[in-house]
User: Fold these one by one.
Assistant:
Number 1:
Amino acid sequence: MMKKVGILSDTHGFLHPRILEFFLDVDEIWHAGDIGNAETVEALEKQKPLRAVYGNIDGYDLRVRFQEIQKFSIEQARVLMMHIGGYPDRYDRKARQLILQNKPDLFVCGHSHILKVMYDQRFQLLFINPGAAGKFGSHQSYTAVRLVVEGKNFRDLEVLDVKKG
């Protein structure tokens, strides 16, 4: 078996139509926080099953619906997802602690609005920050990631990059 996953973050209440298009054939969507509003959640859930964490800008309505940290398995891969995580060699203190405790195969976070995908040799995990999919922030384009999870392996990673404006 395999699962195709769409990953986004930092929508801040805006969902570009190209992102929904990009996620048409995924099995599930993961949102790494700063969702912005319930309408964004509903639009994503209408399309595919959604796993999400809340971010620092998310209000009470989203904080009661989602957790700050998600730990789950997909196929045979262990996933850790949170909004503020830093990045390899510069993980946030809480993220580093959770990585050490949970030994995920994939660590997903958002917050920086900077798309970054890299393999972390030190912790033997794939690191993904899908960048920012919303209008708010200094990023130059809307970005999202999709990939295939097969067993413990990640493959066919693709990036959507739509210039703002």
Note: Helices lie at 17-22, 38-47, 60-63, 93-102.
Number 2:
Amino acid sequence: MFGLLLLDKPAGLSSNRALQRAKRLFAAAKAGHAGSLDPLATGMLPVFFGAATRLAAFMLEARKIYRVTARLGLATTTGDAEGETTEDRSSGPAPSGAAIAAAVGQFVGEIEQVPPMYSALKRGGVPLYRLARAGVEVERSPRRVTIEELTVERYAWPDLQLYVRCSKGTYVRTLVEDVARAAGTVGHVADLRRLSVSPFAEQGMRTFAELEAAAAAGTPTLDGLLLPAESALEGWPSAHLDPAAAAKLAQGQAVQADPALPCGQVKVYADAGQLIAIGLVTAEHRLTPTRVFIR
């Protein structure tokens, strides 16, 4: 297999469990995903099958879009609805709409975030969430992320719905907690949906119900739901090689690049239009393979 699925992950499943379920449906020997979602979250989880898993790393830089509902007035251990309450201000004064708008405005642009303890980041090889579950908290260095858009879609105390377009590495739970504090209260994520992972639009997602119905109709129907794996590399320049050059590149050898190609990473296709590799065009206009899909 060599394809990409935009899975609409349901709530209650970890990203890995969702991946394994999709892998079984497609009877794939190998699968991987790009960009984990918490079990509470739903939405777009790009899943790569077969040799296409080598493309997943290129999506780690992708812009993401979320719709999140924050429950204000309550803080939790995890920053979301799965944690235990640590602070209750639900009976206190509700921030005004103006206060919410002012707070939200503080977090548009390049900001610093302290990663939450309940995250997959590692300290000494141990994921932070495991330390947190053991009652251990360690110091975390702030990270710079970019919030390209942060819009209030609905506010009716205690619920605040936000539309978020952000860079890689953004923790929406942390963003919700920080916005709540800036508005004079506390908060946590009550509901989170990832709408998009660049370059893909929300409309391309497939639910498990759709996948199971397609599987029942037969393998061709199921495989018809896959996207070309290289669609994850939208906007990349392409190199097209004749059979002799393609054979050399497939064996790990550099070949002469088209002078019109810019330096940097390119998609490499054989004459028949099949993606065979990711290559790097050097300043000397040599095309070096960095990931080969066919040998």
Note: The domain at 236-292 is CATH 2.30.130.10 (Archaeosine Trna-guanine Transglycosylase; Chain: A, domain 4).
Number 3:
Amino acid sequence: MKKYCLDTSGLSTPLEFMPEDIHETMWAKVAGLVASGAFAVTVEIYEELKHLSGSIGGCIKENDDALQMEIEEEDWDWKTYIGHYEDMKVRHAAVISEYNGNRKGTIGLNDLTIIALAKTLGLPVISSEKKMNVDQDSGKRQKIPDICDKEGVTHISFNDLLRAEGIKN
């Protein structure tokens, strides 16, 4: 059963700061979540995730069917997902990197896919991104947590995931 939508940074950043060779037990439990189908990702995010190294990267590759939510599969509401994604591309065009010369502090279209998926499935998004201080720059810079707030989607960190799942080293 899907419990979370996963952005690439939700695993890549923690792997950088809490490597598998030091935090073996924790990462084995996270791999168990991957294999159980607890995470949902878009095809775009999966393409990023499959480049992770180590046993987590291997686990992601071995469990692509458990992770990916593909368009035209009958077991989920992909039409609503497409609607959310298309609407968000219009509403948030001013802060989408690909539409703004890849300006720093903006959100990428791949990031928008995971928020649209989370909105469709009613699940939280896991990422390592932090909210931008929108008041200081008139809202021209926004990240995943900012767009999640605007879309009514819960955003959580990797540590929030560990706490929710009772995972400790």
Note: The two ends are 24 Å apart (CA to CA).
Number 4:
Amino acid sequence: MGGDEVDAYLADVGEPKRSTLEAVRRSIRAVVPDAVEGISYGMPAFRVGGKVVAGFAAFKNHLAYLPHSGSVLAELADELVGYECTSGSLHFAVDEPLSDVLVRRLVEAKLAQLGR
């Protein structure tokens, strides 16, 4: 359970996607070091107080950051110029992790929505 599930997920992801997602994982953990890692909807997720605050996933042609919120990405739209977004996912290149600063802003926006 937990981190082992995320390790298993990443073990099935080929390079360079795996290294890129590992970097995003480290960025998320830097913001919420006490988060519980696990799988939600088949994808790695980080829970704080039982609520998912961040997640990520590998797809065929891109990677995605998942805020598990329909409004976090819209709230940070000015900082996401140049990225492709849906209402619930931020797509990024398979070989270029999101910056630590951007991950911090994304996680903190979700935490703020949860009143944390």
Note: The mean pLDDT is 95.
